[in-house]
Amino acid sequence: MTLRIAMIGHGFMGAAHSQGWRVAPRFFDLPEAVEMAVVVGRNADAVAAAAEKWGWAESATDWREVITREDIDIVDIVTPGDSHAEIAIAALEAGKHVLVEKPLANTVEEAEAMADAAARAAERGVRSMVGFTYRRVPAATLARDLVAAGRIGEIRQVRASYRQDWLRDAEGPMTWRLDKERAGSGALGDIGAHAIDLSEYITGLRLASVSGVVDTIVAERPLLADGVGLSGTASTERGIVTVDDVALVSGRYAAAEGAYAPLGSFEATRFATGRKNALRVEVSGSLGAVAFDLERLNELSFYDATLPANEQGFRTIYVTEHDHPYLAPWWPAGHMLGYEHGFSHQAVDLVTAIADGTQPEPSFADGLHVQRVLDAVERSSAAGSAWISTD
Amino acid sequence: MTLRIAMIGHGFMGAAHSQGWRVAPRFFDLPEAVEMAVVVGRNADAVAAAAEKWGWAESATDWREVITREDIDIVDIVTPGDSHAEIAIAALEAGKHVLVEKPLANTVEEAEAMADAAARAAERGVRSMVGFTYRRVPAATLARDLVAAGRIGEIRQVRASYRQDWLRDAEGPMTWRLDKERAGSGALGDIGAHAIDLSEYITGLRLASVSGVVDTIVAERPLLADGVGLSGTASTERGIVTVDDVALVSGRYAAAEGAYAPLGSFEATRFATGRKNALRVEVSGSLGAVAFDLERLNELSFYDATLPANEQGFRTIYVTEHDHPYLAPWWPAGHMLGYEHGFSHQAVDLVTAIADGTQPEPSFADGLHVQRVLDAVERSSAAGSAWISTD
Amino acid sequence: MTLRIAMIGHGFMGAAHSQGWRVAPRFFDLPEAVEMAVVVGRNADAVAAAAEKWGWAESATDWREVITREDIDIVDIVTPGDSHAEIAIAALEAGKHVLVEKPLANTVEEAEAMADAAARAAERGVRSMVGFTYRRVPAATLARDLVAAGRIGEIRQVRASYRQDWLRDAEGPMTWRLDKERAGSGALGDIGAHAIDLSEYITGLRLASVSGVVDTIVAERPLLADGVGLSGTASTERGIVTVDDVALVSGRYAAAEGAYAPLGSFEATRFATGRKNALRVEVSGSLGAVAFDLERLNELSFYDATLPANEQGFRTIYVTEHDHPYLAPWWPAGHMLGYEHGFSHQAVDLVTAIADGTQPEPSFADGLHVQRVLDAVERSSAAGSAWISTD
Amino acid sequence: MTLRIAMIGHGFMGAAHSQGWRVAPRFFDLPEAVEMAVVVGRNADAVAAAAEKWGWAESATDWREVITREDIDIVDIVTPGDSHAEIAIAALEAGKHVLVEKPLANTVEEAEAMADAAARAAERGVRSMVGFTYRRVPAATLARDLVAAGRIGEIRQVRASYRQDWLRDAEGPMTWRLDKERAGSGALGDIGAHAIDLSEYITGLRLASVSGVVDTIVAERPLLADGVGLSGTASTERGIVTVDDVALVSGRYAAAEGAYAPLGSFEATRFATGRKNALRVEVSGSLGAVAFDLERLNELSFYDATLPANEQGFRTIYVTEHDHPYLAPWWPAGHMLGYEHGFSHQAVDLVTAIADGTQPEPSFADGLHVQRVLDAVERSSAAGSAWISTD
Known about the structure:
Rossmann fold, GFO_IDH_MocA-like_dom (chains A, B, C, D), homotetramer, alpha/beta, nine-stranded mixed β-sheet, 17 strands, globular, NAD(P)-bd_dom_sf (chains A, B, C, D), Dihydrodipicolinate Reductase, domain 2, Gfo/Idh/MocA family oxidoreductase (chains A, B, C, D), 26% strand, six-stranded parallel β-sheet
């Protein structure tokens, strides 16, 4: 059988997903073939060009029509977050497997509706997955594997941060990402969501409550000459930034049975001068520690406190060996992977779950949980950093 | 003139201060000679041995007597924090210059009394200083100099953490450092104090309010066979740890005039497996960034965002050149300094201030401020992480 | 017009070239379209499977027939080195543009014949290129650009090494790579060739003479149970390793006009325990330095000695900005590329040169030069490390 | 008993040795007390000032007189290399224990005479030692310990380099270090000697033969206005540099019994722009590897190839634990040592050997061996890099 894919949206994430779908079957033995069938966008010319560029057989402008087509098996949603719920729920109801780029939605309410729809669909064998792709960077997966195998013992503390600096220049113009109506959230939702999800993935724990503060460092910026878009020339008028630039969060994970409930600290920022894409997670345990940094994504730092005391140290594991997660079909040891490979791994895992009839991870329920954490952070910030439950 | 020093106390910090006093005049041209005159301890035999080992001309057991001796000019206090106030105030009133190891005191009340005494003494030309020695690691000083010179522009964000792991083993026994009566505080006061002070030193800003949480990760530990001391054999009985193991803090600095009031995030922990003495401060500015790590204390990371975009990157400056702070009298470039050199620099700065008749830094008022921040953190933690002013 | 490609050979390098051809047109606006037309191998079933797996429209077993087909424009040769000359010369004579994976050939004589053929073909507008792909890792290209722009001044010294460790285990079996008949050379030709070429590319200089020593560290290894192949089960019999495991070389570059002729030092080894794919080049100049490491291929170290003395340090440039070489069509800043992306860049450059009617680099003459250096190293080693000219 | 020391010479090395003698007894329990009795120099005023500054009880101008004084037990020689032989031999004949800063001498002949004198003296219980101090950086000592314990298995390859950049500026003036008459050698003898010695110390192997090339990168430099001294103002006249700026060497170690005789590669340079004091040694073995870098002297990189394949990586050991070499009496874990601490460790080891009646290491015979290696390199360079035995 061949799984035929419709991708809704075709921005930066569309490019990444396309590359994932195109490359995965060349390196991995997929249990089902995949076909990049149709890409959907609002503007007919633009989406036709995207189809040509990214290698989709067809383009279309009406997603409602596409998601009900009999020849479509998977709907891959890479539109902005405010349209995720509507498309995903409709697709699930139409019986299509759904992959949604993170964040699952812009609001908890939407995310709840999506998770409900996913649960109902699952009963009919329809699969759904949210695209926290960094779980599938092999070094991050190895971190999870080491933790799950008990190599760092009981978890004592977690730190996760995602730092970028592309808003550093106060004269950089407003874009849709700085407009709460469109983007839903700022650094917190865009990149903080990754830090939260990855910390939970690696530790196997879930945040139970949070205390946080969000802030907008540069409150006014030049408007774009031609309205709030993705980029462009600055006008002389100024607009108000309505999303956060930075979020600082303390969180308490729910304890594993009988264990201490560890604290985590989180930072998401677009003002960390010099840090370009620094998603870092460090987990301290009773027997060791793991530390991951997306800016050196082929490496994992691992500390083994069970070794002789005078031989202990953080070890840089190049996660490129054939028995490392996802690595078997790629290059010889020492030949590095890049950002986009996670999207191929995501494609592999989704197709495998569909073929096996199992629930892929992260599920919509996982995405909903992250959304609740983000929401709790915003409410905590509004309440003077009071601790808020993520339930 | 020769400045004659009396050191009160002779533990680990006594060794460090002794080394500072011994070595400083060998490399620096001090404006006044110094003499290691007398070391004071409660146990006559132990303090006599310390005098012999660390090179003090005399030993004594009664600090009250020593601080009034006419031949003593400087009183250097390295006892546990609960005795700082009494000794320091008495010494200042006796007209002696005073150096107190951090923390200034165990409580805000004591610290206030000390700052008052220092202010009164200053009117009579008597100097006082608190030993936040890490300000005098040359790379940290260079960080401050770069910030002060505007090389990173307006400050947008600060992160400071001090991570150790010596409590990792849950079967490690109780020591006096885990007993609130004796130690005053745990990770927060012991090492968090350094992170707070260093962040303020480098940025030139002061924390105005904080929101924090402190926690004790391992709540019970074996008692020492012979009571709560510094170290020893574990007994079969267990005691309750009454200090914090970890503190997570968000803070808001008072803004420089007309500028944004930046957020800072702080962590102090004794459970960061694999991190031995990792005091790190990273400051993001509108034009650049600096990052310091005590585990690589001869290096400073500096990012200059005013360079051509395709040449930007964090730069590792080996802070060992003759025109770097404190470096001129030391070794040729590339020859590294260690932990203890900061104590020589501290000695140089104190003696220079005494000779010049100026106020050395950090002052008791600075020490009091840090104490107030620590106190605010504890009160915030008790109040569900509510924001507390540091005034 | 569409350029139709025939790839001869389909091992590991075939996978990499296929990925290069497949992905390049998705991200770059190629001046001509490309089509993966046919892959050629000796075994009909194996090559058919390769065509299916790597996405070639057809497969074939007779390269002679394929290279004369009218519908083929580019012949991409990824067979072992001993067949390069015959295929490449025939293809050039048939009027096809040719890309040959490095090394250009196994012997200087073959390489000379190829360079001659390439020169003749160039007169007819037929292009040829040798695949020293690491020139097209963006950080390596940036190193070249900085040197060419004079940012490190006059070149004083070069160090280049390529270290792997896959022969560490003395019981690892013989493969064809350890057989001189098949492989031509060991570490020297396989990976030392890259170190030499990359050093010349970055500096813009050419090695004029060399003094070297090559050695075989483990002289005997278990034979493969089923003959000398690529991998497999060890038998109880042992065979003699006939290629080098390690090469150490000193070289003298021809001076730039009026300048000092700098020395270079080189190492190629398969016994550098823990180094997986460590191709490193460091160039010291009168005004700065650059250092590249393939194990961190998204980074370039750059030292600018014209900055104020107390701000100098090696800078880690993440070579992921849109104005860095080859980066414009890829991901946002901070999103990393991997090993295979160099093959897409190679495809882009070859297609661009064909469309523009210019000579692509590195040329067969460049490949011949590297071959002469390798040959001179072997002759030097045989002659007690006497200096041998590379002419 | 107290060992009374006379130090001959008082330049940069005199400062380092003085610091070593002063500090050692404060931290280590020496088997004999030491006393900094007298420092000797040619200029009475200068040496008196040095005595005052570095803490020697007396100063003197006639070393011949001093070395025969009954109250002197140890003669510590830190003069330039051309006077080492005369002073050391006289001191040994006078029955004094002798410490000589490296290089042992400027010529093999002198070194041979010194080793002979040392052997004769040893029969009378008189001890001698050459100051390859970097052996006593704890991380380097730990590297040796790991190798000696078999943790990296059989040695396959060694790389050692010592890179500085203080001659980068071609207009930097001539000093005595660039004059062969005074300095004996350039980069090779000054710092290459350390690379050679440290590689032999860590591996426990000895270089049997070498092939090398030395070169002078900047052949003419401004003369100092007041003759060839240590530093000063440049005149308008130019002088000829008569020592090497760079040395590149391949060497073959004598094999351990039954083992492969590994190759080593060496570089010494004063033109490695950006490298300030980069003495690096990396040893590859059949079971692991160690790598040391003096620019991060508190760290050792260790690779253990016996661990599970997917957990292998270079490990950064902070060599600051109490059970690391030399560390017990110093600071708590994670508190760093500096350059000068090696001189204290050297003092401890010498005094311990004297007290125990054992031969301290490195011996004059070890120093002679290094001298022979340096001499063989120079002869090899003169002979077109022919291999020269170090016998």
